[in-house]
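Protocol step 4 of 5: obtain the predicted structure for the target chain.
Materials: sequence only (see below). No template structures provided, no constraints applied. The aim of this step is simply to have a reference model before the mutagenesis design in step 5. Sequence pasted as it appears in the construct record:
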Amino acid sequence: MTTLGLGLVMGVPQAGAAEAPVGLGTAGSYSVLGGQAVTNTGPSTLAGDLGVSPGTAITGFPPGTTAGTTHAGDAVAAQAQSDLVVAYNDAAGRAPTANVAGDLVGQTLVGGVYKSTGPLALGGTLTLDGQGTSGTVWIFQVASTLITASASNVNLINGAQACNVYWQVGSSATLGTNSNFVGTIMALTSITVTTGTTVAGRALARNGQVSLDDNTFTTPTCATPPTTTSSTGAETTTGTSTGTTTDTTSSTSTQTTAGTTTDTTSSTSTETTTGTSTGITTDNSSTQTTTGTSTGTTTDTTSSTDTRTTTGTTTDTTSSTSTETSTGASTGTSSSTGSETTSSSSGAGLGATLSGVDQNGGGTDYDNGPVGTSDLASTGASPVLGTLVWLGALLVLFGGLLLTVARRLRRARR
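Step 4 output (structure tokens):
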């Protein structure tokens, strides 16, 4: 047939058109679906379902085998035929991107919709080029017959997939012996697959029969293309944060030495932070800029108590309070108040209490004389010890008076 050597492609698209796949519905699970009958000779193998509707005749299984389910004239096959009609009409109704005629042998076609107004043939190899896109779709609209020669081949390159190739045939299709065919055939009438042909796709006939002869059908599945994500965005965050932090430290130390000296130190530190932070964060293409204003108030309170006991019952008590306040820049206020009380006693019912406060308000030992009454009467101390303590107190008092007189004399001389 001379027309087979006169293949023409007019207006072939230079890039894959953005065609969507044809939805097959439930017909997509079938390797072979006939309208009136399905016949088979030899050990044909089907990867998918086998069915016929509205006819009921399926012959040649076995020796033919199917990995799916067989439906002969039942409701499931009827639904598949209904879905086939929808798919056929969808493919036939797509807008052509190029016209083809005659024989497709030797051509390389990118994705698109190819329309033939007459019969279409394949006498050798047809190459379908996915151009690096696995989702590229080819739809061939054939007005009458589709005939392929023996040992013909459909070759897929650059990401092209058999699941995205569709042949909508206006009458019948015949695949030559020992050929390799790719795609889903949707024929209005019948489909004949001759001896030894391999099909990576489906043979779906609406009204006639499908004839097989020692064929192999594989079900094409579409590989998921690699996902490339490009994100360019801007993110702005404005927030206000208010927090309170309390830090409390308590320390107690007890030290005992010869002469019955007991040193007890108790320290308590409390820090309270209350802050308000307002910030703006901008994130654009992996670049993050943060602008913030922080206003905070920090209160640091420290309380320390030192108690020391030695022979003669001396008690030393120190109290310190510090307060620090910071707003924006650091502003601190420190206030310290201290008091020291020393109590010494000796003998039964004898003793004195000495107390002093320095002129700056700090707690220093500044003896000015006995104040208060003795509480040694209840301690059971010996009279000798009491006398010694009393004498010691008098000596301290006398020494203080002498020191005062000496200072005044010095001032007078100046």
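Step 4 remarks: The first helix runs from residue 75 to 93. The longest strand covers residues 234-257.
Proceed to step 5.
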